[in-house]
Write a structure and sequence with these properties.
Layout: E1 6-8, H1 11-19, E2 26-29, E3 46-48, H2 56-68, E4 74-76, H3 78-84, E5 88-92, H4 102-111, E6 118-122, H5 127-140, H6 144-166, E7 173-179, E8 184-185, H7 190-196, E9 200-201, H8 215-221, E10 225-228, H9 235-240, H10 243-246, H11 255-258, E11 262-265, H12 278-289, E12 303-305
Parallel strand pairs: 1-2, 1-5, 5-6, 7-9, 7-10, 10-11
Antiparallel strand pairs: 3-4, 7-8, 11-12
Helix pairs in contact: 5-6, 6-12
Length: 306
């Protein structure tokens, strides 16, 4: 098997390449690719134009301002790409906020990257597209059988979890929060994960982009459980940014708050990444929703109680 030189510009694709047994083929990454930790030594080809240390409301303002002016929120270093001489570049066209855009990659390759790499753009809107993306990456790398096997293993684990959850009588209503200020519900594959884990998803639709939501809607639906999973943030950062929620006048009136059923998760490492660890994301939800039935060992690292 001939190895290829691969640059991954999206964290989930980096994890996929590693899960396929081709970590040593990676020659470059995005600034957000950080798992497994061994990939952090790779050359970084992207950077963010927004101040990621700002609070949630300010980050939202900066992103919307850039997008309104048709400006990408990421910089792509074409000179580094050129020096890396990749055969394959993995990117995405699913979300302008998630990673560098397909158009930016195509422009850089056409203008500056002499190796003329093949560009593979993933667009995972739901679980089906996540599986398709894994198989597509494996096919491009010339190892389609590994992709088939990996997807079969991941799907089997999810099926086993779903079968256990389906036998439970209690199915709590769940609100998954993807951004705190302003409020955004989690969409795409997250509603599917909630249902598989034995919950009833209240906001966001499977296979569709994450929607903005209002406090009035949150109060009206009054979830049994609130799971906070801000895009790009780990648990400590999410905890630091909870103030706009907990200081809202309606916060103490919510059933989830009164019942101690508010949870913070590592959205950055799990729920926001449409790759192999989507199974761990479902396991986290199962532990949260049915603590007496599921124990996968994610508490403290993947989630905590607020």
């Amino acid at each position: 098997m001939t190895s290829l030189r691969v640059v991954s510009l999206i964290a989930s694709a980096t994890e996929t390449v590693v899960a396929l047994g081709c970590e040593d083929w990676l020659v470059g990454r995005s600034h957000e690719c950080d798992y497994p930790p061994s990939v952090r030594g790779l050359p970084v080809c992207t950077s963010a134009k927004v101040d990621v240390e700002a609070n949630g409301a300010e980050i939202d303002r900066q992103i919307k301002s850039l997008l309104r002016n048709a400006v990408s929120i990421y910089d792509l270093d074409a000179a580094i790409l050129d020096r890396l001489c990749p055969d394959v570049i993995l990117t995405q066209s699913q979300c302008e906020v998630c990673a560098v855009s397909l158009q930016d990659v195509e422009r850089a390759v056409c203008e500056l990257v002499r190796s003329r790499p093949r560009i593979v753009s993933l667009e995972p809107d739901g679980l089906a597209e996540i599986w398709e993306g894994i198989e597509e990456v494996a096919a491009v790398l010339g190892i389609p059988d590994r992709g088939t096997q990996l997807v079969a293993t991941l799907r089997r684990r999810l099926d086993e979890l779903a079968e256990r959850a389906a036998r439970l009588k209690r199915r709590p209503n769940v609100a998954c929060i993807e951004w705190i200020d302003p409020l955004m519900a989690a969409g795409n594959w997250v509603p599917e994960l909630v249902e598989l884990a034995g919950g009833v998803n209240l906001f966001g639709e499977a296979g569709r982009h994450s929607p903005w939501m209002s406090w009035e809607e949150l109060v009206d639906r009054d979830p049994d459980v609130i799971v906070v999973m801000p895009c790009g943030w780990d648990i400590p950062r999410s905890r630091k940014e909870m103030r706009p929620m907990v200081e809202h006048a309606a916060w103490p009136t919510l059933s989830a708050v009164r019942g101690g059923q508010v949870f913070l998760t590592d959205g950055n490492q799990y729920f926001n990444r449409p790759g192999p660890r989507v199974v761990e994301s479902a396991e986290i939800l199962a532990e949260i929703l049915h603590p007496g039935e599921f124990h996968f060992g994610h508490e403290g690292t993947g989630w905590i109680r607020w």
